[in-house]
């Protein structure tokens, strides 16, 4: 009888994202998709992020097979966690490893404090963010199959497998460094690492370690679109036992949720979205509003914030601007938004701490998106058919921006942070080149839509992933 009960137990997948919002959201979308397919999912966060999740009850209600648990990030609960603390971000691999291992062992012994009364089924496999190398080490120690999840593009991942070729390579006026094979871009589009100290960069080493650890897993799940990365994927695929391209995950999920998608989209966010901005958007003309958001980590100086504000007002277009409470480098500038905002008519702009971005981008009033070029934001903008103004800061944002501007031609880059340049760039996107960018983004969106439709690559790869997990013997 016990053997029969074990046979009918669902496959149990433990999913572990990196600690940043931009990594949590796509993996949570994947968790929801897998839970809909009958898999038992435990989604792990740090204790700190678990407490910040916007609406876990709603997620659990809509996805009965989706459960939540948390582990320590190595810091006391009352310890401050700045929005971008490099030592904290880089230290996660070391600080969290023992807690992750202990949790998996507790599942094995049925001694965990899981979010449901009954103990979870035995762990079938792990899906962990590829930025983290320690889950691979723990999975190998405990002999649990593990898949890597990549929240960024194949181009960005390919960079870390080939960047060693750039270390120590001299670049002089007579010899131009050629683009990397499969990259489609020039070396000027690589993230802003100083080539002279590239091999000594701790952040780069963490990314390289994670990328190399990925290759020891059962497969790579990557939130990208085949047709947009046809040059890079052939270089990635041979390095893995299996590769599942599944983007855009948010759109794939929404296609299966139907009318529930807008209700669920913001659940699981680390910020509470201001829904009142949707009413303001209702009052604005078709494609007239510029949406502005620099994601969950980018910070601005006081002067940059003021220049952005001046440029937005001078452009004449209404704007919806996300300004997080922790967006400024200088903590002594409370109230600067309210003071500086007197430069323009308030009816032309709406400022929020956080917005329901998927809903905003799909609103008929939004005609452009000024963004830091995080991969989630680009995918959401493509699916909403909204052209972009790119202001990349670090990491994959530089490559993403180059793809938007040079390869896909669905936006423009902001080259200078002054009111006049910002005004001019907005007018280019929203005014004299609007139709050009709209045609391009419509074409790219069609490729993405084909991928998530029945028979499309992303649609089939999710089904293949589910079947592969169900075949795992424990």
From TrEMBL:
Keywords: Glycosyltransferase, Transferase. It comes from the Eukaryota. CDD domains: GT1_Gtf-like. Its EC number is 2.4.1.-. The keyword Transferase applies. Gene3D superfamilies: Glycogen Phosphorylase B. It is an enzyme of class 2 (transferase). Pfam families: UDPGT (PF00201). Coiled coil: none annotated. Belongs to the UDP-glycosyltransferase family. This is Glycosyltransferase. It comes from Ziziphus jujuba. The lineage of its organism: Eukaryota, Viridiplantae, Streptophyta, Embryophyta, Tracheophyta.
């Amino acid at each position: 009888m016990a053997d029969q009960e074990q046979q009918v137990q669902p496959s149990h997948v433990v999913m572990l994202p990196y600690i940043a919002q931009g990594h949590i959201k796509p993996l949570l979308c994947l968790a929801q998709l897998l839970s809909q397919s009958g898999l038992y999912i435990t989604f792990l966060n740090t204790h700190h992020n678990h407490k910040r999740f916007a609406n876990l009850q709603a997620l659990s209600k809509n996805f009965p097979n989706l459960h939540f648990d948390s582990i320590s990030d190595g810091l006391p609960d009352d310890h401050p966690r700045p929005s971008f603390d490099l030592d904290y971000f880089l230290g996660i691999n070391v600080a969290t490893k023992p807690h992750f291992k202990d949790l998996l062992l507790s599942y094995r012994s049925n001694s965990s404090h899981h979010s449901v009364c009954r103990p979870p089924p035995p762990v079938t496999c792990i899906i962990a963010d590829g930025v983290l190398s320690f889950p691979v080490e723990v999975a190998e120690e405990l002999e649990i199959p593990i898949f890597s999840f990549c929240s960024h593009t194949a181009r960005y991942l390919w960079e870390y497998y080939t960047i060693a070729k750039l270390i120590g390579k001299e670049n002089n006026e007579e010899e131009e460094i050629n683009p990397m094979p499969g990259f489609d871009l020039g070396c000027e589009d690589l993230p802003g690492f100083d080539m002279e100290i590239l091999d000594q960069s701790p952040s780069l080493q963490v990314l390289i370690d994670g990328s190399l650890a990925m290759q020891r897993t059962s497969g790579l799940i990557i939130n990208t679109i085949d047709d947009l990365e046809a040059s890079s994927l052939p270089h990635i695929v041979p390095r893995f036992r299996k590769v599942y391209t599944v983007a855009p995950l948010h759109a794939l999920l929404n296609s299966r949720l139907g009318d529930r998608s807008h209700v669920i989209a913001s659940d699981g966010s680390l910020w509470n979205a201001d829904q009142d901005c949707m009413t303001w958007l209702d009052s604005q003309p078709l494609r007239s509003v510029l949406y502005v958001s620099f994601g969950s980590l980018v910070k601005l100086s006081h002067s940059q914030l003021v220049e952005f504000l001046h440029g937005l007002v001078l452009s004449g277009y209404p704007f919806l601007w996300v300004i997080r409470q922790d967006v400024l480098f200088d903590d002594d500038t409370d109230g600067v938004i309210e003071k500086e905002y007197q430069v323009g008519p308030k009816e032309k702009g709406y400022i929020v701490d956080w917005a329901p971005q998927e809903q905003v981008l799909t609103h008929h009033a939004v005609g452009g998106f000024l963004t830091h070029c995080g991969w989630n934001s680009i995918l959401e903008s493509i699916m909403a058919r909204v052209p972009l103004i790119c202001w990349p800061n670090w990491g994959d944002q530089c490559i993403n921006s180059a793809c938007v501007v040079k390869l896909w031609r669905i936006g423009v880059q902001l080259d200078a942070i002054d009111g006049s340049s910002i005004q001019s760039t907005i007018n280019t996107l929203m005014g004299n080149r609007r139709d050009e960018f709209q045609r391009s983004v419509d074409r790219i969106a069609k490729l993405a839509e084909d991928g998530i439709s029945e028979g499309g690559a992303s649609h089939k790869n999710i089904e293949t992933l589910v079947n592969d997990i169900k075949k795992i013997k424990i």
